[in-house]
Write a structure and sequence with these properties.
The protein is of the alpha/beta class. The chain has helices at 5-32, 37-46, 75-89, 107-116, 149-169, 190-206, 233-243, 262-271, 297-313, 333-352, 356-364, 368-379, 384-394, 400-406, 409-417; strands spanning 50-52, 60-61, 64-65, 94-96, 120-121, 124-125, 173-176, 181-182, 213-217, 227-228, 247-252, 275-280, 321-324. α2 (37-46) crosses α13 (384-394) and α5 (149-169) runs parallel beside α6 (190-206). The radius of gyration is 22 Å and the shape is globular. The structure holds manganese (II) ion (MN).
């Protein structure tokens, strides 16, 4: 199903006058403080986040999975779901495919569908963390790190296939996340596992088209519980450096031990021109994959503060690939993604309100109190009417969640697809 522009306009009309009151009040305040509000709005309109093809169904845990009715059961329906989110928010203009869960059967048809919904294909994601039916070799003891050459070759060939699939869709980057590691001391030789991984990545890198990037994701634990071959940003950075200038580190917010200073990691990677991509989610204890901004919104703001600083001051760092990598168990996945997009945009808007010149001055004067005041003044600003204005300018809904509910979109999806559909690949 597709949303018509008039439906959104109708729903917007109902909240237009309260939006205008709130927006005019804030815009005046910000203008008086010296901010260029128009410029901020257009930055918000430009900011697009990719939706991964695995996030449109309800996620599960190792204890079970509760399906959310009317889930997309094939790639076409997944792209249609991203189209719904994008129509409501105008913030989700890209889809990120997971291979082999979502291999297109008819490339032309899939590309036409995506472009009819104004969607691009962002990074393609390989999967060597589970065995596929009829696969000759098993990844039980690792993929790119495996001591068996045959296993490594199969994993390398898969990554090259993924590049080929992405190439046909117009993707420009490959994201590699490895579950490789060990669950018990002594299981792996750390040096051998690392060296095998580096050599395998070098081989994949050689197959990367000139205008592509390779994004190397890290994670400290899980599914392996004793060691992971790429546990942290430093290891990813080392591997990316040895691969070459088209290889970058990818930061996934959930892939850190509790209380890691992620904003500092982001900042230094951008200084070195090696931050390639970003996966949004939130967590309380581990890689919880919760809705972005639902647990630690101030941390998300501090990260965005560094991202904004880097985007303005580090031309050596490329444009970033933004993606939501969350998977919630009990919410409607589309509502969950809309909430994540809202939280991401909100943190971005607040970071744009940090007075960088005043902050630099306070830092030089050693005025610690003022530094905190400057950051928190931006953080405490209610920027929701800026987001509404950006969405209005882009033709989206003033309140995407309210519009989603008012249009009873989940009910329409259930009617169209049936109640007990199951999203593939989960
Ligand atoms: Mn991720």
């Amino acid at each position: 199903m597709k949303i018509k522009k008039e439906q959104i306009l109708d729903i917007n009309n109902a909240s237009m006058s309260s939006h205008k009151d709130n927006y005019n009040f804030l815009a005046n305040q910000l203008t008086n403080k010296g901010f260029n509000v128009k410029n901020i709005i257009s930055k918000l309109v430009e900011f697009q986040v990719a939706i991964p093809s695995w996030a449109l169904g309800a996620g599960g845990t190792r204890f079970g999975r509760f399906s959310f009715y009317g889930e997309p059961s094939n790639l076409e329906q997944k792209i249609e779901d991203v189209g719904l989110i994008h129509a409501l928010t105008q913030t989700a203009g890209a889809v990120s495919l997971h291979i082999p869960w979502d291999v297109p059967e008819d490339y032309r048809a899939i590309k036409e569908l995506a472009s009819s919904l104004d969607l691009k294909f962002d990074a393609v994601n390989s999967n060597t963390f589970q065995d596929q039916t009829n696969a000759k070799e098993s990844y039980k003891y690792g993929s790119l790190c495996n001591t068996s050459q045959a296993v490594r070759e199969q994993a390398i060939a898969h990554n090259l296939d993924v590049i080929n699939i992405g190439n046909q869709l117009g993707s420009k980057s490959l994201t590699v996340w490895l579950a490789d590691g060990s669950s018990f001391p002594g299981q792996n030789n750390f040096q051998t596992a690392f060296q095998n991984t580096q050599n395998s990545l070098n081989t994949i890198y050689k197959g990367l088209p000139d205008d592509w990037k390779m994004l190397i994701e890290y994670k400290p634990y899980e599914p392996n519980f004793y060691s992971t071959v790429i546990p942290d940003w430093g290891t990813s950075f080392m591997l990316a450096n040895e691969c070459g200038e088209k290889a970058f580190t990818l930061v996934d917010l959930g892939h850190h031990l509790p209380n890691s200073n992620i904003e500092q990691i982001v900042s230094i990677l951008m200084l070195k021109g090696k931050l390639g991509g970003f996966h949004f989610n939130d967590s309380k204890y581990g890689d919880d994959d919760l809705t972005a901004g639902s647990i630690k919104p101030y941390a998300l703001f501090l990260i965005f503060n560094e991202l904004v600083y880097g985007m303005e001051n580090n031309p050596q760092n490329p444009d970033l690939a933004w993606m939501i990598d969350a998977s919630h168990n009990i919410k409607d996945p589309l509502e969950d993604l809309i909430q994540s997009l809202e939280a991401i945009q909100e943190s971005y808007a607040k970071a744009l309100l940090v007075d960088q010149d005043a902050l630099k001055e306070a830092q030089q004067e050693g005025d610690v109190v003022k530094c905190q005041e400057i950051l928190q003044d931006a953080y405490k600003t209610d920027v929701r009417s800026l987001l509404e204005k950006a969405r209005l300018n882009a033709g989206a809904a003033i309140s995407p969640i309210k519009a989603y509910r008012k249009m009873r979109l989940r009910n329409h999806l259930i009617t169209e697809r049936g109640k007990h559909t199951i999203a593939t690949g989960l």
